[in-house]
Amino acid sequence: LAEAERQLRAALAELGQQGPKAADTRRDAVTRLGVLLCQAGRDAEAEELLRPRGFEHRLARGVFRYPLPRDQPAEAADTAGVADAGAPLWALDGALSGGMLAHLRSLF
Questions:
Q1: Considering only CA atoms, which of 30, 12, 13, 35 is closest in space to residue 90?
Q2: Domain count, the chain
Q3: pLDDT by residue (tens digit) across 2-21?
Q4: How far apart are CA 96 and CA 84, in angstroms?
Q5: Structural domain of residue 102, as residue ranges?
Q6: What is the pTM of this model?
Q7: Across the chain, what does the average pLDDT equal?
Q8: 78 assigned to some structural domain
Q9: Cα 43 to Cα 20: distance, rounded to the nearest angstrom
Q10: Cα–Cα distances in Å, from 94 out to 43, 62, 77, 97, 101?
Q11: Domain annotation covers residue 80
Q12: Are 50 and 36 a contacting pair, CB within 8 Å?
């Protein structure tokens, strides 16, 4: 995760110099960095990064802070069906249709 964070921060520094034409790419990099910070338990840093960009809600800590297989003894790790259990989570904005989102909200 440290290497992913380093690369995202380097990308953001570079994108910051490219002006408005890089806005979508910059937002994607900020989102990915925010999720990575949440996964690392660095909630205050994630909030500081994401709130000014319009993010208002987040998933519970338990969703982001799950044990990774590399944190367990080899015999305890169960990664069947997981292509890369150590990869950072990726958040998508607008991935659901309005109808599907409304339905899911009604369930909770």
A1: 35
A2: 1
A3: 899 999 999 999 998 888 88
A4: 24
A5: 2-73+87-107
A6: 0.60
A7: 82
A8: no
A9: 28
A10: 23, 23, 33, 7, 9
A11: no
A12: no
